[in-house]
Design brief:
Two copies of one chain form a homodimer. With about 425 residues, the first copy, chain A, is of the alpha/beta class. The first copy, chain A, is about 40% helix and about 25% strand. The first copy, chain A, has 15 helices and 17 strands. Chains A and B meet through helix 1, helix 2, strand 2, helix 6 and helix 8 of A and helix 1, helix 2, strand 2, helix 6 and helix 8 of B.
């Protein structure tokens, strides 16, 4: 089905808040086989909301609206529905009862504010009747319009549990199927990837290849749309397999994997830290970190994964030279001789944290993230990595471009990619 | 001026990439006094892009378009302009020359791809002629339409340096001014804040108060729009000051600050970690951290600030019990007796890192972020914080709700808020 997403709120149109809901909804709906032709963001103006609603209903098979359903005075979505779709709000007694029943410890004033949530457009169907969560479905001109709260976890839950199953029932068997895979790539620029695999798009008009820089990664999506083979097949012999969607998809996927090789670190939902965690777990290796310029970023990414304590022991954020000596045993003379941002210090940091933590593998990062601290010899963006195992210690020098945030992010990703390559036995020579 | 933002790319409508450009552009344009009435996100379809462009040009004073200007085959913005606005792409020799001059080490094939960037719509004015950056201005039906690249740092630079100054010239003196401030609040729910200050909106129809949960914070925006006092002023005596926009704004700001007190941690662009960093700097205090369940998140936030090495020494990510003993000197018996998630261990972690790092102040976090590891006595969301100074050590127990990511985020913010309150001498009693 063709859908449209509308996000509501002055906090979005004034740039105060980043709209993550539309992206989440688009990703889930795309994954369920729908196509989103447009996403609109509208301020808290009933007239503008109403215009966007009417336009979306007229041209799409379904509409998802997020935000503006709350109890505060700037929540105006229902007012817009009343105006634009001629559906005045009416009291839903069962919703009111649910609000009054919930022992959330509100004062009488707060309770009166919350009671606004029981007034919904005429004809609305409450999406989650058993729980106190805003969100309803309105079928207008035969088009399902889902109104979801702007609070991300409520929106996500309702979308996954109510909206997508409901749409699957709605569409019956008429859905146009796609096969899709996203390859996640680190260490090659978008334009080079395009050069390596761009010609594959010519295999069929049903094939689409997209390139998306998601700093510091590049994501490549391969999509094959179901349908008859577009070019008339040559007279099939007994041994020629028919180029079905599945065959075509598998053939292109194999060609992409061959062209990009090790630079592909993951697929679809996989993340760099997730892949590293999985490799550590399956190889029964334990890891510790010594982070200087990344200041805890890498540890933060690794510990975001549930169960990471099985392979990640922790580490030291040795932001000052003093802590490099005290917590990692880096020699004072070594620091003086080479400077904190140097190969020998990166190695000493990795060895220090590996020995003291008693782990199999340790990685260190020391560099100049800027904006200050650079020199002619070691400009901003100079970053050394150390990798210590039971057998040996290596160091790696990189020079990154960008601002402080970008240098820290690309340094953290490079560290994880070094670990990934080491665990796969495919480390590039320092 | 009234503006509209259009973001282009299948990576956005399929949810693979989060659109941060629109939010950045909206924030900057709002700050410059413009009002954004809508933000649209469109896939890589020339027809849809064209329709959105024509609609925006018809109803807005200016339009900002981001994305789809690159060299790869899915960059179709110029094609849409040719179709919708009847402006075919023509070769801009000076752009071509600039591309060929740049010694970026491309192969001949890559260079041919890049040369696509020299074909721009008829009548386009290149925004940054001295550098190799996509982006142009097209004046169509007397409406300025700015086409900017989708790469965030290029877009941001062109918006700040070219678009906003150009719009300021365009609008002359007709801009409608607003005074605005955003208060950032931690530790109070949105509905309670609404209850405390919501009545202030009644002061004048020119006043708008908005509430935006930005997990785990709540942001409150106070906006006063320029204009004549809406209610006829009473006959002014010699001592009555006129309720100008500035007076009205200041009066309301003072009332908000009085009502919310210490819960306001910052204003406008301020962040919790930035406020803590500033307090540490002005009080000449040094800080170290011992993070368990937050796993480096707090250190990562503090070191994101340039110059943080002046007050932040670093710390230990003691994710395993072993590292709590080895790097922080937490007693083995203490861990056995109370468990790693306990007040005594939080205190020992804070004391351990403070003494070993030789700093003035240390903070520790140990808790259960989930989804596993909870018990009846210590459910998921149980988090202890330790705060060690030269004089004393305190511990604090919190129970947070949410998923793993939310618990880690709110624990990190709580830790920073405890530091903020300690440095202000306004610590709540544990």
């Amino acid at each position: 089905m063709i859908g449209e997403i509308i996000a509501i709120g002055n906090e979005l149109t004034s740039g105060r808040v980043l709209d993550t809901n539309s992206r989440f909804a688009a990703g889930q709906l795309f994954g369920a086989g729908h196509e989103i032709i447009a996403m609109a963001t509208i301020g808290d103006s009933p007239e503008e909301i109403g215009r966007a609603l009417k336009r979306a209903i007229a041209r799409s098979d379904f509409v998802v609206v997020t935000g503006g359903l709350g109890a505060t005075s700037d929540d105006l979505t229902n007012e817009a529905v009343a105006l634009a779709l001629k559906r005045p709000s009416v009291l839903f007694p069962e919703v009111l009862e649910k609000i009054r029943r919930c022992p959330a410890g509100q004062s009488a004033t707060e309770m009166r504010l919350l009671e606004k949530l029981a007034w919904l457009p005429d004809g609305a169907e409450v999406l989650s009747p058993e729980r106190r969560m805003a969100g309803y479905l309105l079928i207008h001109d035969h088009t399902p319009v889902f109104f979801l709260p702007g609070v991300p976890h409520e929106m996500q839950e309702l979308l996954a549990e109510r909206v997508i199953p409901r749409l699957a029932l709605w569409q019956g068997e008429s859905v146009r199927r796609v096969r899709q895979r996203v390859y996640k790539i680190f260490g090659r620029p978008e334009i080079e990837i395009n050069r390596l695999v761009g010609h594959l798009e010519k295999a069929s008009p049903r094939v689409r290849i997209g390139y998306y820089p998601v700093f510091p990664e590049v994501h490549l999506s391969l999509t094959v749309i179901d349908g008859p083979p577009a070019t008339p097949a040559p007279a099939p012999s007994a041994t020629t397999s028919i180029d079905t969607t599945a065959n075509l998809f598998d053939r292109l996927a194999a060609q992409i994997e061959a062209a990009l090789g090790d630079c592909i670190f993951g697929r679809d939902e996989e993340t760099l830290e997730g892949v590293v965690g999985c490799l550590l777990r399956t190889r029964a290796q334990t890891l510790a970190l010594a982070e200087s310029c990344t200041g805890g970023l890498i540890a933060g990414k690794l510990t975001a994964l549930p169960g990471s304590s099985a392979y990640f022991s922790g580490g030291v954020v040795s932001y000052s030279n003093d802590l490099k000596e005290k917590f990692l045993g880096v020699g004072h003379q070594l620091l003086l001789a080479h400077g904190a941002v140097s190969g020998p210090v990166a190695r000493a940091m990795a060895e220090g944290v590996r020995e003291r933590a008693g782990v199999d593998l340790a990685l260190s990062v020391t560099g100049i993230a800027g904006p200050g601290g650079g020199s002619a010899e070691k400009p901003v963006g100079t970053v050394y990595f150390g990798l210590a195992t039971l057998e040996r210690t290596l160091d790696f020098l990189y020079r990154f471009a960008g601002d402080r945030r970008q240098i820290r992010e690309i340094a953290a990703a490079t560290a994880l990619d070094l670990l990934r390559r080491h665990l796969l036995g495919k480390l590039l020579q320092p």
